[in-house]
Amino acid sequence: MPNNAREVFAQNLRELLDRTGRTQADLIRELGLRQSTVSDWMSGKKYPRVDKIQLLADFFGVNRSALTEGQPAQSLPGTTQWLRAGLVARGCPGAQGLEDRQLVTILESMDLLARALMEKD
Fold this sequence. Notes:
Strand content: under 5%
Largest sheet: none
Number of strands: 0
Shape: globular
Radius of gyration: 15 Å
Number of domains: 2
């Protein structure tokens, strides 16, 4: 378990990259970041400024807290556990019985929709 803000941020950033299928190179290219900066964040060597945290949060479509706060990985927005819990909490019939592959398909659809809406603006 991470014990300081840099380690928490690094762990959450790695989780978000993994969950979204993106890479450090994607961050560098799409957000105009320096390779050394992203590497320092990923290793927990440095902590980003607030404006960069917001840039990353917007990139991943999450709140800043998803990057900055220590939390169990399964509670991160966009995970299958997060989606299942949300569907169950809203009383969606059959939500508890959905398989992970079905939840992944729903998450992928949500991501495509979010990207389309961002491109529209």
